[in-house]
Amino acid sequence: MLEVHKDNFEAEVLQAEGLVLVDFWGPKCESCLAVMPDVEALAEKYGDRLKFCKLNTQGNRRLAISQKVLGLPVIAFYRNGEKIDELAKDDVTKENIEAKILELLA
User: Fold this and answer.
1) What value does the mean pLDDT of the chain take?
2) Radius of gyration of the chain (CA)
3) CB 22, CB 79: distance < 8 Å
4) Quick check: is 53 catalytic?
5) Residue 89 main-chain phi, psi, to 5 deg
6) Cβ neighbours of 48 (radius 10 Å)
7) Each residue's pLDDT tens digit, 45-87
8) pLDDT in the model for residue 54
9) 29, 42, 55, 64: which one is catalytic?
10) What is 2-99's CATH superfamily?
């Protein structure tokens, strides 16, 4: 998974072609840390069909807010630079993330 931050977010996510998943997380967010291995497993499974990125909101707070990420965890989906969907809070589970990936790839 590609680590994105305020210096490369535009190039790696907003200027990317196709589907991009961004895992917005924080080091103090237990739910974020719990789902991270699942997201990394999905990246291995689907990484040839969409781009997987993760963004630590600590130190990138303005960027997170600009993407309307106000709580954690958030899994956001972008297509050709536009945010098209997201999963937040209790909806962030491996099953829901995989279902959303399959829906958006269809």
Assistant:
1) 97
2) 12
3) no
4) no
5) 50, -120
6) 6
7) 999 999 999 999 999 999 999 999 999 999 999 999 999 999 9
8) 98
9) 29
10) Glutaredoxin (3.40.30.10)
* Helix 94-105 × helix 30-46 angle, to 10°: 40
**pTM of this prediction?**
0.97
**Chain Cα centroid distance, residue 35:** 12
**Residues ≥6 apart with Cβ < 8 Å to 91:** none
CA-to-CA distance for 74 and 45, rounded, in angstroms? 20
Q: Please report which helix (H) or strand (E) contains residue 20, including its range.
A: strand 19-25
Residue 19's nearest CA partner among 84, 95, 87, 63 is 84
Domain positions in the chain are 2-99
Catalytic option among 32, 42, 50, 101: 32
